[in-house]
Amino acid sequence: MVTRTWHVYCAIVDNFGDIGVCWRLARQLAHEHGQTVTLWVDQWGPTRTIIPGLPEAPGRAVIDSIVVRPWSEAGAGGDVTGDVLIEGFGCALPAPTLAQLAVRARKPIWINLEYFSAEAWVPGFHLGSGYDPAARARRWFFFPGAGPDTGGILRERNLIAERDDWLARGQGDALLARLGAPMSRGGLNALCFAYAGAPYLAWLGALERERFALVSVWLCGRASQTAVTPAARENRPGFQFADLPFVSQPDFDRLLWTADLAIVRGEDSLARALWSGRPFIWNIYPQAQAAHHPKLEAWLGVYAAGFPPALRDAYIAAHLAWNGITPAEELGPAWASLMRLWPDWQAHSRSRSAAFAESVDLVSRLMRFMEADPIRVK
Q: Kind of pairing, strands 137-142 and 188-192?
């Protein structure tokens, strides 16, 4: 394997999804594939939230064998393009980086890492390329996806084994105690990390009607904690609520492993919920002109393809209501059906996780592309 210098650029649009994915990508390149990685970020404050140990003042730092730098240093001199140049989610590279790219005689492999999609058009565009006349370089487009002809999904090499070992050693209680989250033994433990505007009250009402002995709801993120107001938490016998602090990426994985059920939002959390092997609902990032609707429906068509018909129909109906595609009132009947099929939902969540884990992960596919000689122009 050839060791290359990788420069990964990340612009933080909102929340922490973009930097979360780019940090996982950088760590996996360095730790599992022995690559030399510099991660460039346009916002230092949010990056410090995701990457513990970064100094308060923006500036070059080395964390976990990865160099982390602010975009403001791109014009300070030195190599800022490397052997491989990753443009995270079409972030538009800083002007000094583009200038260096334009004058280099030997161009780096320039890759635009796109957002995940399970839509049918993705294989046709994955690893497509185009020449950028301003940068005087060719750029490839790498599309994460659910099929063999896509970029795959981020998954660390030993993640599934670590999950199973952690659960076998019963580490969940200690984690919850540290975070101040109650455990419902014999009841239901639900993690909720969703966007503002989601049908929280309809969901809580559906949970209440199931008459679990005890329900613990762990609220993650300001949107969920704000939406489930003190008034919404009152007069719900058998419910325990906890507003969890912001947790590290490893602890978020462990929370998903410990929970019986999760509501997750965005792209990074979708992947982590998938690898948890637990039942989950995906609150997809809302886009203008309902562009996220076909993206959600494509994912459901792929993920729930192995579900029995009754479970598949209820699962899809719950997603459509949770994401505002159908009225919130439709969440109740869908949720009741899911709870009637709870053992099946648990079993099929484990089996679908295992089936996806048999595929090659995103970073390994990226490395295979880099090792192709010559790299095919599509």
A: unpaired
Q: How far is it, in rounded angstroms, from Cα 85 to Cα 53?
A: 25
**What is the average per-residue pLDDT within 95-120?**
96
Task: Give 281-303 pLDDT, tens digit per residue.
Answer: 999 988 888 889 999 999 999 99
Q: What is the 3-state secondary structure (H, E, C) of 62-96?
A: EECCEEEEEHHHCCCCCCCCCCEEEEECCCCCCHH
- Determine the structural domain holding residue 347 and report its residue range: 159-357
How many domains, the chain? 2
Known catalytic residues are 18, 267
Residue 35, in any domain of the structure: yes
- Under 8 Å CB-to-CB from 365, ≥6 apart: which residues? 151, 152
HSE-CB for 245 with a 13 A CA cutoff: 11
Residues 138 and 225 in one domain: no
Dihedral over Cα of 349, 352, 358, 361: its sign: negative
For CA atoms 74, 77, 81, 82, the dihedral sign is negative
Q: How far is CA 112 from CA 29, 93, 127, 160, 194, in A?
A: 16, 10, 10, 28, 27
pLDDT tens figures, 194-252: 999 999 999 999 999 998 889 999 999 999 999 999 999 998 999 999 999 999 999 99
- Enter the pTM of the model: 0.96
